[in-house]
């Protein structure tokens, strides 16, 4: 025997309470019958068609993703659209989908703790509070290092992605206090400055906010690192899978055991980079 989907959802909601998600977010169960048994669970960042096919090939009963499939309203689930094809594939193959998004960001441990750990931070605390929830993290490196040394070490700690990392700042500058926000985070620059961070690691940094932030800094701190959306959030998957196993085992029910897997797919949408300038380039 195996736990039902209702059992697994209960465990996931204990780890990542839906009430802690941001007001604009869409989290929780997207597809599936709460009475169906769950033997295998696949964890992934994105509920793409390829991930759903990976789950089908694996024989997974449930996919747990960080990003929502249906964040904004849709008016058709025809297979002529990617979302429609995804919903159809989930239903046809009896695969449930569960989303833990901003509620996984604010969890402790959660997405941002995983990123802080990859940065090697100690004395970690919340970066800011949004809608009553701690968002992002800020902490210290064990010893001061140059910005180039920090970003080189972080690049090695992150899963490889074709876009690599973009850095705004003097490669030789000394950094120690680091702020992090997995995924898109260029709306938290004020909090980063208030926290006294030397460098801010996040993703999806846009031209105008970054240009303004660097001008505000007059060439100094905080330096900015765009480490990639998928790369910064995929770090959460392994820990989340283990915590689900532990939560189910902790129920005391002998049959509450599942087999968890981490998606092998890189759902970063970029494929390659052409002509990136090395540090000190003039282009």
From TrEMBL:
Transmembrane regions listed in the UniProt entry = none
- Family annotation (SUPFAM superfamilies): NIF3 (NGG1p interacting factor 3)-like
Q: Which InterPro entries match?
A: DUF34/NIF3, DUF34/NIF3_sf
Q: Which Pfam families match?
A: DUF34_NIF3
Q: Does the keyword Metal-binding apply?
A: yes
Q: Which UniProt keywords apply?
A: Metal-binding
Quaternary organization: Homohexamer.
Q: Family per UniProt?
A: Belongs to the GTP cyclohydrolase I type 2/NIF3 family.
Record-given protein name: GTP cyclohydrolase 1 type 2 homolog
* Organism lineage string: Bacteria, Bacillati, Actinomycetota, Actinomycetes, Micrococcales
